[in-house]
Structures are given as structure tokens and as C-alpha cells.
Inverse folding.
């Protein structure tokens, strides 16, 4: 069993769950996070938390696993901070790779389903090259992820590093951040519904997304970083079942018993029309088999939001 793990962006939604699991499994956990998207400390006390940018972090410590989750993944946030966004997933990726290379660590990167852009093949397999606007308002995020994937594969090929790339689709659950009006629909819809506020949908609401509950993401990610023989692999981690954004809003209203009304605004530029993960590769490589259905996951997430978080 690997004993030490360095998690960039480990105080965020996905990272804090991963840090917790690593602690429970007896690992030494270091988190490097600039706390830019979440100021609240989410990781257990046993975690060695360093407030620093991934681009600037230097270390002589030995890490068995290095994980790069650091990003500004919420569309409204990355559109407001495009340079920070592309920096953490270009200069930051390079810095994290160098740390992993010097330590001969396993390196795992969270890319994104956004590398597919407005995908023309649904469900989308890893072999799909993407349909991405290279300089539109979302490009600071999408192209940062695509560049990082290229850089990681260059390190894998040139230095024979054990690199692993996952492309999460929409993951949700407790600790997911809710902010702004656009992107990350589940936490926003829940928050609005709990306050009986209008639920805003950009466009006609017929765009689809597919949602994976955090427990299923965590199990898949744990297998992905700890299993032998996965060097150089790239997998989707997400759900295949699609739901329209309109139906999601209705479901959240129903499950919260809310009086919220749905209102529509103009569509946002480059908003992908459909999202659904082809997860056959993840099934084959790590036995991926998500267990939590959307309704159960939503109820657990609503309960967490009701707890005042
Ligand atoms: N949650 C999802 O559905 C989803 C989907 C696709 C991809 N991802 C990817 O997974 C990763 C984690 O996402 P999340 O949902 O936990 O988001 P999050 O915002 O909750 O966590 C990201 C963390 O990175 C930190 N961070 C941002 N810029 C940094 C920098 N320059 N240096 C150090 N730390 C920095 C933030 O402070 C935050 O704690 C991201 O790379 C994201 O792009 C997430």
C-alpha cells in the first residue's frame, strides 16, 4: 500500500472527500490548496494543509501518489478569472508533474468532460476528440484541461511516468459549492428551491446532463489511483443516464417541496447541448459500477444543504 499522497486542490469538493478516504486508509496526506474557490477548511485535522498555489509549490518530500485537482471548475468563476484558471491547468500541471517525476510517484489528474466541448457523440467515449471552441469564454477551462492532458501524456511517453487521467462528468453531493447563477446546476437549484426563489434556466432547458453521486466518484477514483498496471490510462468517470435541465429543476422542486417557479433566460455561449458518459473503459479497467441513483443522491445532497452548509 502506498503511504503518502499529495493532493493539489484537496480542500475542494472532490479533494476533501479523497483526503478523508486517504486518512481513513492510513495514508499521510498533504493538501496544497490556495483556498480560492472555498475558504472554509474541509479536510480533517490530520491532513497537512498548505495554503499555496499549485503553480508555486516546491517540495523535497517524497510522495507515493500525486493528485492534481486544483482548478476553478465553476463556469461563472472561471469566466471571471480566466488567467488563474488556465494557469493552474498549464503551469500548475507542469509543476505537479515535476514533483511527481522526481519522486517516481503515481500521478493522477482530473481532466473534465469539458474536453469534449459540445460533444457530437452521445454517450461520449474517451476516443472522441472533442468539439471545442479554442478561444471562446470557456476556453480558459476547456483548453487548460486539454493542454494538461497533452503535457501529461508527453511526460508519460518521454519519462515513462505512471500517469493516469480521469475525465469526471458532473459529480455532486455534500460539500459541492453553490455560487453564482450559471453552472453546477444541482447545488444552485437546491439552494434556490430551499429558499422558494425562482429557478433560472439558461436556454430552453432541453440541454441534458448526467450526474454522478460523490460516493460513486470516490470509489472509482480510489480504485483508479491504487490499482496496479493503469499507467497511461484515460477514463471517463460519470453517469450515462441523461436528464434535461428542465426535468432536473422539476425534480429538485418536488423533492424539496418548494414553491419555486422555473424561469428561462437566454442560453449561455458554448453551453454543451448534451452530456452523457460512455463508461465502458472505466468498467473494464476498474470495475466501475455506480450504485447511487439520482433521486437518492439528490435527497442526500438536499439534506446536507438543509443542515445549513
Ligand atoms: N465536480 C465535478 O463535477 C467535476 C467535473 C469535471 C471535472 N472536475 C475537476 O475536478 C477537480 C476538482 O473539482 P471540485 O468539484 O472539487 O472543485 P472545487 O472548486 O470544490 O475544488 C477545487 C479546489 O482547487 C483549489 N484551487 C483552485 N485554483 C488553485 C490553484 N491555482 N492552486 C491550488 N489550489 C487551487 C480551490 O481552492 C479548490 O479547493 C477540478 O480540477 C475540476 O476541474 C470536477
Amino acid at each position: 500500500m502506498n503511504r503518502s499522497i499529495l493532493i493539489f486542490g484537496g480542500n475542494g469538493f472532490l479533494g476533501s472527500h479523497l483526503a478523508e478516504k486517504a486518512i481513513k486508509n492510513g495514508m499521510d496526506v498533504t493538501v496544497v490548496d490556495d483556498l480560492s474557490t472555498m475558504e472554509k477548511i474541509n479536510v480533517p485535522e490530520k491532513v497537512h494543509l498548505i495554503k499555496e498555489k499549485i503553480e508555486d509549490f516546491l517540495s523535497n518530500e517524497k510522495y507515493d501518489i500525486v493528485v492534481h485537482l486544483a482548478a476553478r471548475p465553476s463556469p461563472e468563476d472561471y469566466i471571471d478569472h480566466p488567467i488563474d484558471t488556465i494557469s493552474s491547468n498549464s503551469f500548475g500541471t507542469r509543476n505537479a508533474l515535476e514533483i511527481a517525476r522526481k519522486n517516481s510517484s503515481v500521478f493522477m489528474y482530473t481532466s473534465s468532460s469539458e474536453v469534449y466541448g459540445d460533444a457530437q457523440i452521445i454517450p461520449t467515449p474517451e476516443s472522441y476528440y472533442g468539439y471545442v471552441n479554442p478561444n471562446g469564454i470557456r476556453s480558459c477551462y476547456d483548453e487548460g484541461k486539454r493542454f494538461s492532458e497533452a503535457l501529461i501524456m508527453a511526460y508519460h511517453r518521454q519519462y515513462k511516468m505512471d500517469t493516469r487521467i480521469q475525465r469526471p462528468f458532473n459529480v455532486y453531493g455534500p460539500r459541492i459549492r453553490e455560487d453564482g447563477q450559471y453552472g453546477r446546476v444541482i447545488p444552485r437549484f437546491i439552494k434556490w428551491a430551499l429558499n422558494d426563489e425562482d429557478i433560472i434556466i439558461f436556454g430552453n432547458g432541453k440541454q441534458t446532463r448526467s450526474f454522478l453521486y460523490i460516493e460513486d466518484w470516490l470509489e472509482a477514483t480510489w480504485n483508479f489511483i491504487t490499482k496496479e498496471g493503469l499507467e497511461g490510462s484515460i477514463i471517463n468517470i460519470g453517469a450515462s443516464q441523461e436528464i434535461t435541465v428542465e426535468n432536473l429543476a422539476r425534480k429538485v422542486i418536488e423533492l424539496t417541496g418548494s414553491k419555486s417557479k422555473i424561469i428561462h433566460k437566454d442560453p449561455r455561449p458554448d453551453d454543451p447541448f448534451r452530456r452523457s458518459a460512455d463508461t465502458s473503459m472505466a468498467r473494464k479497467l476498474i470495475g466501475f459500477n455506480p450504485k447511487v441513483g439520482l433521486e437518492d443522491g439528490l435527497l442526500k445532497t438536499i439534506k446536507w444543504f438543509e443542515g445549513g452548509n
Summary: The CA atoms of residues 216 and 290 lie 5 Å apart. The first helix runs from residue 13 to 24.
